[in-house]
Specification:
With about 270 residues, the protein is an alpha/beta fold. It is about 30% helix and about 25% strand. It has 9 helices and 10 strands. α4 packs antiparallel against α5.
Length: about 270
Amino acid sequence: MESTEGSTTNSNKIHNISDGTANGNTADSISDGTAGKAVLEIMNYSKSYGNGKLAVDNVSLSVMSGDIYGFIGHNGAGKSTTIRAVVGVLDFTEGEILIDGHSVKDEPIDCKRVTAYIPDNPDLYENLTGIQYLNFISDVFAISASDRDERIRRYADMFEITDALGSLISSYSHGMKQKAAIISALIHEPKLLVLDEPFVGLDPKASFTLKEIMRDMCRRGCAVFFSTHVLDVAEKLCNKVAIIRQGSLIFSGTMEAFTEGHSLEEAFLEADK
């Protein structure tokens, strides 16, 4: 197993193996040939709160085009704190985060233009209908009428909520709200898709559909960075993985380097000792 790219581990159970991101080696990505460019770079990111306790400590990793990058750790390990900083929801002063070469701190609008974020508990405008909400998001990203109509129709059919688009979001189940949030995130065709526990609340067919969309995005040279507790899904879906414990990365790199022939669950439990 491997230490992190930008920080060292204090566990003697973790080996030191490079994941290849430093020299642009992305042979393990599933891109169609556009791999090699860093879509997301987290460099020496730290976050502490009012009590002085470090929630995240000197985290560094790179997500390349074509990567489906899993972010794994216990509750309270720092996953959501990191993700919220990446998408510009949480301010930070220590470290730097770049999306498609733009600084999250200094160029937030440029970053948001190419990023989509799906939180674990989507907070939608419940007084709007589904189609009104999706059109509102399309307006924010200046999506043309023809493009939005095609994309909304395509994704609504894929997630089987076309018939519900005329209903108020307040009448939606949690799973339907999650589907609407996913569609709204895909409308502007982001280069980076960031998700926090994306499969919570989704039925099996919707989960399969989302995984296929993630794979297709990466084949086109986009990148996906997501947190999950569902290790068997991460093992089958991700080509790279980062493990965070008590705010510090103990591993970042290829799935193969971390698991070393074992299951992801077995490797995670061993690294977590």
